[in-house]
């Protein structure tokens, strides 16, 4: 102010303007520098039928050629293909993990198609929880593999969602941020796309499926995000081909009747998806994964393991108390199991003893029976022996008598 200026002149004080920032005004800069040094990770899960355009869209999104061999339609169950890429855009490094379903929608029985996907998401949460509960943690170096977003590819039937879509999304919505996409949107007319979008949204709502909503609580992005929420599901087209339109080379798909430009907002929602996913809301997707989906998994898991924040009397319980209670519970259970095992062992010994006794008795009876038979046999043989002996005596008697007679006869013959 002029008055201040006068005072400065009077006191001969020089007024300098500051060059650059100082004080805690610089805090955001520190964060930016650190984030750039550390690099970023982002994990995308693509769920959709074989050949629906998952790999092509990822290539189009990241302007790369990550695509590998074509998937077959003949897998007996749903699998996952996990690939991690290190990408760089100016000085920003991004460790991107793309998980794609393989064989999804190709089986006759599609009831369990969502299970491998759910298991994969849970396994990443479990790995993070494991790291978090370690005594020596290194979360800053830990490669966080939790899925930050699930791009769900809907077939461009123009009609309605399939039961497989509803079942899978229902099973995933509490574990991951789902962004539904109408794949190969160039195969459906503009009017049909609008009707299809409305139909899909009403089906999702009536089946109680929660999809990711772009956040509207931050005033810098609220307006864009709320208008884009109204565009869901995004009608996307993927292509890695570059086509000539006038004097420009654009990414698009060339048809006999014209060119579909992937990056033209009048042709499809690809640009909206890319902006929302990579430029505006990637951090929110990651934050929501951590604070909502992972938190829910962690809560359920720790509760199952017996951890609690308050006891039955609504008083806070310390970790030490829980640990001791758990240890006591474990000790009691071991005792119970040991007692049960002992009882079982005694019972089995008793049973074995009884069977041995029964077998012994049976043998004894058999022996007695054999003895009786043997006695009878001996008796019989003795009778026969006696009889034979009698016969032998008789024989000798007869023999002696005949010999005597013969001697008499020969003596009388000599006399004559
Ligand atoms: P994935 O098995 O789901 O990974 O499918 P691919 O990305 O390998 O795509 C299968 C076929 O569909 C390829 O021939 C692609 O050129 C084609 N394709 C991919 N995206 C689109 C699209 O948006 N529109 C049309 N019409 N075809 C597409």
UniProtKB/TrEMBL annotation:
Signal peptide: none annotated. GO terms for molecular function: GTP binding. Residues 38-304 form the Septin-type G domain. Residues 331-398 form a coiled coil. GO terms for cellular component: acrosomal vesicle; cytoskeleton. Gene3D superfamilies: P-loop containing nucleotide triphosphate hydrolases (3.40.50.300). Keywords: Coiled coil, Cytoplasm, Cytoskeleton, GTP-binding, Nucleotide-binding. Pfam families: Septin. It comes from the Eukaryota. GO terms for biological process: protein localization to perinuclear region of cytoplasm; spermatid development. Its main location: cytoplasm. Belongs to the TRAFAC class TrmE-Era-EngA-EngB-Septin-like GTPase superfamily. Septin GTPase family. Filament-forming cytoskeletal GTPase. This is Septin. It comes from Callithrix jacchus. The lineage of its organism: Eukaryota, Metazoa, Chordata, Craniata, Vertebrata. The gene is SEPTIN14.
């Amino acid at each position: 102010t002029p008055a201040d200026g006068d005072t400065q002149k009077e006191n001969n004080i020089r007024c300098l303007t500051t060059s650059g920032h100082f004080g805690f005004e610089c805090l955001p800069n520190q964060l930016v520098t650190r984030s750039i040094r550390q690099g970023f990770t982002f994990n995308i899960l693509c769920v959709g039928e074989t050949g629906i355009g998952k790999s092509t869209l990822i290539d189009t999104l990241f302007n790369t050629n990550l695509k590998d061999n074509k998937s077959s339609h003949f897998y007996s169950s749903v699998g996952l293909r996990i690939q991690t890429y290190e990408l760089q855009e100016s000085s920003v490094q991004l460790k991107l993990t793309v998980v794609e379903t393989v064989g999804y929608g190709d089986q006759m029985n599609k009831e369990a198609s969502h299970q491998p996907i759910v298991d994969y998401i849970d396994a990443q949460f479990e790995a993070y929880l494991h790291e978090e509960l370690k005594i020596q943690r290194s979360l800053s170096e830990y490669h966080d593999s939790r899925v930050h977003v699930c791009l769900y590819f809907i077939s461009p039937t123009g009609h309605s969602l399939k039961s497989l879509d509803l079942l899978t999304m229902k099973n995933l919505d509490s574990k991951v941020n789902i962004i539904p996409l109408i794949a190969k949107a160039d195969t459906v007319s503009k009017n049909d796309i609008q009707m299809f979008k409305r139909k899909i949204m009403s089906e999702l709502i009536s089946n109680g499926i929660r999809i990711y909503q772009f956040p509207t609580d931050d005033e810098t992005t609220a307006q864009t995000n709320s208008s884009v929420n109204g565009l869901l599901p995004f009608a996307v087209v993927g292509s890695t081909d570059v086509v000539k339109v006038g004097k420009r080379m654009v990414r698009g798909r060339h048809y006999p009747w014209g060119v579909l430009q992937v990056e033209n907002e009048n042709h499809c929602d690809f640009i909206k998806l890319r902006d929302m996913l990579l430029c505006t809301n990637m951090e929110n997707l990651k934050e929501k994964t951590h604070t909502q989906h992972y938190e829910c998994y962690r809560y359920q898991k720790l509760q199952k393991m017996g951890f609690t924040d308050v006891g039955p009397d609504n008083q806070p319980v310390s970790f030490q108390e829980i640990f001791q209670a758990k240890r006591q519970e474990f000790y009691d259970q071991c005792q119970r199991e040991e007692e049960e095992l002992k009882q079982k062992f005694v019972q089995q010994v008793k049973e074995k003893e009884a069977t041995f006794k029964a077998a012994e008795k049976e043998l004894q009876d058999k022996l007695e029976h054999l003895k009786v038979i043997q006695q009878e046999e001996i008796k019989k043989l003795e009778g026969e022996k006696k009889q034979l002996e009698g016969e032998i005596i008789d024989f000798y008697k007869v023999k002696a008598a005949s010999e005597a007679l013969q001697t008499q006869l020969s003596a009388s013959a000599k006399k004559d």
